[in-house]
Amino acid sequence: MDNKDDKDTNDKPIEQPKQPRNLQGLLKFALEATRSEDPTTATDMQMSAESREFLEKALKSMTVDTAKEMLDAAKVTLDPDASEDDQVDALEVICGHVINIDQANVFHQIGGYDILKPCLNSKYEGVRAGAAALVADIARNNTTGQTTLAQINMLQEIAPLLTHPEPICTNAMSAISSLVTNYEAGMLELFNSGLIDRIVSVLETRKENKLITKVTFFLAGIPGCHPEFVDKFLDLGIMKYLSGLIVPVTQEDLQDSQVLNKVQNILHATTTFCSYNRSLDDLRVIAPDLPERLKEIAKVAATDEAFDDIKDYAEQILKVLK
């Protein structure tokens, strides 16, 4: 007996409806898809003119004019009669759009940057925090955003907010990170302007867990993203500040997610810099007791697999310090 496919070779495959490109196409797509699923009722699925008009209006009502929505929200942030909550909500609306890089660039094109400096200097803490978050969202992984924000000296505007309370300072650090990461001109400005000293000062003087986490997260990326700047960070004594933050912790301490994230990022940043011999030499001189501290941390971290990253980082540093 001859082998035959299950399907008759004369049968033609069912053609799939073309993907829709507009509202009319979407209507046709819905009809065609339904017809192919249940051909016996195809005639019942024909839309009347009234039904088609109703569905088309419904679909149009669901579309959003993003530029208009961002402009309307921007106006609220500059309205002296708007409450703090209203202005914060407006900034959140804009943030919801600019996380898309194309929309972030549209925000610049429609003049949205005009609200940034007033909002960063607002009398309302919530507005200052929201504006810093907006800058971070615009610049993140967006070279065009980084460039256009650099043209209005955004680093100079953001850096002073590092001295403000949470969440302003944390959002400001996120913004700085977004403004300079993978953007050499931004990194150069950070050093040439002396603003890098403000970041180093955070490691030396501030205690907020989230803020330290943001700073060390930024530092952890430097050797990979900007190896040409590693020596500049070492010149600032970055290993002294990082090693000073490496202190023994208890299992109870690490149950706090903020402490857990902070310790993990401190060790991660230290690990990445330890790929450079100069960093290791610095640690051996300025922190001779660091191995003992790391052993204590690794011992505590070994008690729970949730702390595995901390244990791994501590052991990596111990290994290269030998």
Automatic annotation (TrEMBL):
- What GO molecular function annotation could you give as one example from this UniProt entry? adenyl-nucleotide exchange factor activity
Pfam families listed in its UniProt record: Fes1
Q: Which UniProt keywords apply?
A: Repeat
Basic and acidic residues bias: start-end ranges:
1-15
User: From what superkingdom does this record's organism come?
Assistant: Eukaryota
Keyword GTP-binding in the entry? The reply is no
> Which positions fall inside the Nucleotide exchange factor Fes1 domain?
23-105
The annotated region (Disordered) lies at 1-24
Q: Extract one GO cellular component term from the record.
A: endoplasmic reticulum
What is the protein's name according to its record? Putative armadillo/beta-catenin-like repeat-containing protein
UniProt organism field: Nyssomyia neivai
